[in-house]
Amino acid sequence: MPRVILGYISAIDAMNRFIGRIAMYLIFVLIAVLLWSSVSKVFLTPTMWTLETAQFVMVAYFVLGGPYSIQMGSNVRMDLFYGDWSPKTKAWVDAFTVFFLIFYLGVLLYGGLVSTAYSLGYFGNEPFDFLLSLVGTFFTEGTAAAGDKLGFLERSPTAWRPWLWPIKVVLCLGVLLMILQSLAEFFRDVGRLRGVLD
Asked: In the chain, how many domains are there?
Protein backbone atom coordinates (compact mmCIF):
# COMPACT_ATOMS: atom_id res chain seq x y z
CA MET A 1 0.00 0.00 0.00
CA PRO A 2 1.25 3.51 -0.70
CA ARG A 3 2.75 5.33 2.24
CA VAL A 4 0.31 8.21 1.80
CA ILE A 5 -2.61 5.83 2.41
CA LEU A 6 -0.93 4.33 5.48
CA GLY A 7 -0.20 7.86 6.70
CA TYR A 8 -3.84 8.83 6.15
CA ILE A 9 -5.04 5.84 8.18
CA SER A 10 -2.63 6.64 11.02
CA ALA A 11 -3.45 10.36 11.07
CA ILE A 12 -7.23 9.89 10.99
CA ASP A 13 -7.06 7.15 13.62
CA ALA A 14 -4.95 9.34 15.91
CA MET A 15 -7.16 12.41 15.45
CA ASN A 16 -10.43 10.53 16.01
CA ARG A 17 -8.97 8.62 18.97
CA PHE A 18 -7.97 11.93 20.58
CA ILE A 19 -11.35 13.59 19.93
CA GLY A 20 -13.28 10.47 20.90
CA ARG A 21 -11.42 10.05 24.18
CA ILE A 22 -12.26 13.66 25.08
CA ALA A 23 -15.88 13.29 23.92
CA MET A 24 -16.28 10.28 26.26
CA TYR A 25 -16.21 12.65 29.21
CA LEU A 26 -19.20 14.59 27.92
CA ILE A 27 -21.32 11.88 29.54
CA PHE A 28 -20.27 13.32 32.92
CA VAL A 29 -21.29 16.80 31.76
CA LEU A 30 -24.65 15.34 30.75
CA ILE A 31 -25.04 13.65 34.14
CA ALA A 32 -24.20 16.92 35.92
CA VAL A 33 -26.74 18.89 33.87
CA LEU A 34 -29.48 16.34 34.48
CA LEU A 35 -28.61 16.12 38.17
CA TRP A 36 -28.82 19.90 38.47
CA SER A 37 -32.15 19.80 36.64
CA SER A 38 -33.52 17.32 39.17
CA VAL A 39 -32.16 19.20 42.18
CA SER A 40 -33.43 22.55 40.95
CA LYS A 41 -36.92 21.16 40.30
CA VAL A 42 -37.18 19.69 43.79
CA PHE A 43 -35.41 22.24 45.99
CA LEU A 44 -35.07 25.47 43.98
CA THR A 45 -36.71 27.28 41.11
CA PRO A 46 -36.69 25.03 38.02
CA THR A 47 -34.20 26.15 35.40
CA MET A 48 -35.12 26.64 31.74
CA TRP A 49 -31.75 25.78 30.24
CA THR A 50 -31.18 22.24 31.49
CA LEU A 51 -33.29 20.24 29.02
CA GLU A 52 -31.85 21.83 25.88
CA THR A 53 -28.34 21.84 27.29
CA ALA A 54 -28.67 18.11 27.97
CA GLN A 55 -29.85 17.58 24.39
CA PHE A 56 -26.94 19.58 22.97
CA VAL A 57 -24.39 17.73 25.12
CA MET A 58 -25.88 14.38 24.05
CA VAL A 59 -25.62 15.35 20.37
CA ALA A 60 -21.98 16.36 20.83
CA TYR A 61 -21.26 13.14 22.76
CA PHE A 62 -22.86 11.02 20.06
CA VAL A 63 -21.45 12.61 16.90
CA LEU A 64 -17.95 13.33 18.21
CA GLY A 65 -17.69 9.83 19.67
CA GLY A 66 -19.03 8.18 16.52
CA PRO A 67 -15.75 8.14 14.57
CA TYR A 68 -13.94 6.62 17.55
CA SER A 69 -16.69 4.01 17.82
CA ILE A 70 -16.24 3.12 14.14
CA GLN A 71 -12.48 2.87 14.67
CA MET A 72 -12.88 0.55 17.66
CA GLY A 73 -15.45 -1.62 15.86
CA SER A 74 -18.00 -0.79 18.57
CA ASN A 75 -20.70 0.32 16.19
CA VAL A 76 -23.87 -1.74 15.97
CA ARG A 77 -23.77 -4.57 13.43
CA MET A 78 -26.23 -7.22 12.36
CA ASP A 79 -24.13 -10.09 13.65
CA LEU A 80 -26.33 -12.97 12.52
CA PHE A 81 -23.75 -14.21 9.99
CA TYR A 82 -20.89 -11.71 10.31
CA GLY A 83 -19.41 -13.13 13.52
CA ASP A 84 -18.72 -16.54 11.96
CA TRP A 85 -17.00 -15.22 8.83
CA SER A 86 -13.25 -15.27 8.30
CA PRO A 87 -11.34 -11.98 8.59
CA LYS A 88 -10.92 -11.91 4.80
CA THR A 89 -14.66 -12.32 4.18
CA LYS A 90 -15.38 -9.61 6.76
CA ALA A 91 -12.93 -7.30 4.98
CA TRP A 92 -14.65 -7.95 1.61
CA VAL A 93 -18.09 -7.23 3.02
CA ASP A 94 -16.90 -4.18 4.98
CA ALA A 95 -15.06 -2.77 1.95
CA PHE A 96 -18.28 -3.01 -0.05
CA THR A 97 -20.82 -1.86 2.54
CA VAL A 98 -18.77 1.13 3.71
CA PHE A 99 -19.90 2.97 0.58
CA PHE A 100 -23.50 2.84 1.80
CA LEU A 101 -22.35 4.40 5.07
CA ILE A 102 -20.36 7.09 3.27
CA PHE A 103 -23.34 7.90 1.03
CA TYR A 104 -25.62 8.22 4.07
CA LEU A 105 -23.10 10.39 5.90
CA GLY A 106 -22.62 12.54 2.78
CA VAL A 107 -26.37 13.21 2.59
CA LEU A 108 -26.39 13.96 6.33
CA LEU A 109 -23.44 16.36 5.95
CA TYR A 110 -25.13 18.11 3.03
CA GLY A 111 -28.30 18.65 5.08
CA GLY A 112 -26.27 19.73 8.10
CA LEU A 113 -24.34 22.34 6.13
CA VAL A 114 -27.51 23.75 4.57
CA SER A 115 -29.13 23.89 8.01
CA THR A 116 -26.03 25.54 9.49
CA ALA A 117 -26.08 28.23 6.79
CA TYR A 118 -29.76 28.84 7.57
CA SER A 119 -29.01 29.10 11.30
CA LEU A 120 -26.36 31.74 10.51
CA GLY A 121 -28.91 33.88 8.71
CA TYR A 122 -28.46 32.85 5.08
CA PHE A 123 -31.76 32.34 3.28
CA GLY A 124 -30.54 32.20 -0.34
CA ASN A 125 -29.95 29.34 -2.77
CA GLU A 126 -26.15 29.02 -2.43
CA PRO A 127 -25.48 27.98 1.20
CA PHE A 128 -22.07 26.47 0.43
CA ASP A 129 -20.81 29.66 -1.20
CA PHE A 130 -22.01 31.54 1.87
CA LEU A 131 -20.25 29.18 4.29
CA LEU A 132 -17.00 29.20 2.27
CA SER A 133 -16.99 33.00 2.06
CA LEU A 134 -17.77 33.23 5.78
CA VAL A 135 -14.86 30.94 6.71
CA GLY A 136 -12.55 32.72 4.24
CA THR A 137 -13.49 36.11 5.64
CA PHE A 138 -12.94 34.87 9.18
CA PHE A 139 -9.39 33.72 8.41
CA THR A 140 -8.40 36.65 6.18
CA GLU A 141 -10.18 39.64 7.68
CA GLY A 142 -11.04 38.56 11.21
CA THR A 143 -14.05 38.05 13.42
CA ALA A 144 -15.65 41.46 12.93
CA ALA A 145 -15.69 41.18 9.13
CA ALA A 146 -17.11 37.65 9.33
CA GLY A 147 -19.75 38.87 11.76
CA ASP A 148 -20.87 41.48 9.23
CA LYS A 149 -21.78 38.67 6.80
CA LEU A 150 -24.16 37.04 9.26
CA GLY A 151 -27.87 37.61 9.09
CA PHE A 152 -30.60 36.90 11.61
CA LEU A 153 -29.25 34.09 13.78
CA GLU A 154 -31.69 31.21 14.31
CA ARG A 155 -32.73 30.58 17.88
CA SER A 156 -34.60 27.75 19.51
CA PRO A 157 -38.35 28.44 19.89
CA THR A 158 -38.26 27.56 23.60
CA ALA A 159 -38.34 29.96 26.54
CA TRP A 160 -34.54 29.83 26.92
CA ARG A 161 -33.99 30.59 23.20
CA PRO A 162 -30.34 29.52 22.67
CA TRP A 163 -28.64 30.01 19.31
CA LEU A 164 -28.68 26.84 17.25
CA TRP A 165 -25.60 27.36 15.07
CA PRO A 166 -23.04 26.03 17.61
CA ILE A 167 -24.63 22.59 17.86
CA LYS A 168 -25.16 22.48 14.09
CA VAL A 169 -21.46 23.18 13.58
CA VAL A 170 -20.61 20.37 16.03
CA LEU A 171 -22.97 18.05 14.14
CA CYS A 172 -21.33 18.86 10.80
CA LEU A 173 -17.84 18.40 12.28
CA GLY A 174 -18.79 15.02 13.75
CA VAL A 175 -20.30 13.78 10.49
CA LEU A 176 -17.21 14.94 8.57
CA LEU A 177 -14.98 13.06 11.02
CA MET A 178 -17.16 9.96 10.54
CA ILE A 179 -16.71 10.20 6.76
CA LEU A 180 -12.94 10.48 7.17
CA GLN A 181 -12.91 7.50 9.54
CA SER A 182 -15.08 5.47 7.15
CA LEU A 183 -12.57 6.12 4.37
CA ALA A 184 -9.76 5.03 6.69
CA GLU A 185 -11.70 1.83 7.44
CA PHE A 186 -12.12 1.22 3.70
CA PHE A 187 -8.37 1.60 3.13
CA ARG A 188 -7.71 -0.67 6.12
CA ASP A 189 -10.02 -3.35 4.66
CA VAL A 190 -8.26 -3.11 1.30
CA GLY A 191 -4.95 -3.49 3.12
CA ARG A 192 -6.27 -6.59 4.89
CA LEU A 193 -7.38 -8.08 1.58
CA ARG A 194 -3.95 -7.44 0.09
CA GLY A 195 -2.23 -8.89 3.15
CA VAL A 196 -0.51 -5.61 4.04
CA LEU A 197 -2.48 -4.90 7.23
CA ASP A 198 -3.75 -7.29 9.86
From this structure: 1
